[in-house]
């Protein structure tokens, strides 16, 4: 049974997970000219179909062939999965493969996380979110296939980024997280490593392994990356506002070159650099996003995006008098200033 499923070759082949044929909706291109596709799938019953005798993911060698994908390089390892750069020999393109270590698939929580990630990513269609291209068992390994970007934002932050480019990245990131929130999805692990850069200054959000559909607020175990985690999330109370906090810290790091440690103390490291070349409104937007008190932040990334769009409009409309182009709250700016 497993071998038959593993040898099935079809793009968007997720029917083995859901026991039904997935619905595929095709669109010509998105607003940035990239082809877009959406998989509509029901809830997955289980992924526990792995052969314990199969070699572990971490032992996959460069040059290994998994159906039409040839492993080219190991890009990194996460909590329970390894990401590889690979080459699609049929479609003649480079892709990224996320392959959980088979040993972790004996853990029911790991299986649930993987099931959830496949379900959630199949629902998301947005130019700022990495698309899930394929998800299936190949030769005993569960393989998730994504477009291969140039590098992560974390890698890019090791080199200087032009101010205009950094602001553009910031707006794209806000828009991507806002779309997830509009779909009632909490990411819960927003950090530079989970933003991938593509050509034409496109940046996309990825890794929804810790994501949750937001329903009623209830206490859950703390998950995420501590350096970018909101205080309430560390206490087991994640929400839209905790995603906003993490997003705000990523943007602060991008625009200032520094990452403040919690609990914050004024002056924040890099605050003066943050202000350089930015409108006071946009600085206030970032400060509001990273406020330690969740009630003082934007309620979600949708509200944050709306505020950013208003700022962008006011700053670009030359028919508006200069005196009316700022809606800055001086208390926000002074709070973290020297």
From TrEMBL:
UniProt entry keywords in alphabetical sequence: ATP-binding, Kinase, Nucleotide-binding, Transferase
Residue sites binding ATP per the record: 98
EC number(s) reported in the record: 2.7.11.1
Molecular function per GO: ATP binding; protein serine/threonine kinase activity
PROSITE patterns: PROTEIN_KINASE_ATP, PROTEIN_KINASE_DOM, PROTEIN_KINASE_ST
Source species, domain of life: Bacteria
Residues covered by the Protein kinase domain: 69-309
InterPro entries: Kinase-like_dom_sf, Prot_kinase_dom, Protein_kinase_ATP_BS, Ser/Thr_kinase_AS
Classification via PANTHER family: MITOGEN-ACTIVATED PROTEIN KINASE KINASE KINASE 20-RELATED (PTHR43289), SERINE_THREONINE-PROTEIN KINASE NEKL-3 (PTHR43289:SF6)
Protein name: Serine/threonine-protein kinase PrkC
Organism in which the protein naturally occurs: Novipirellula aureliae
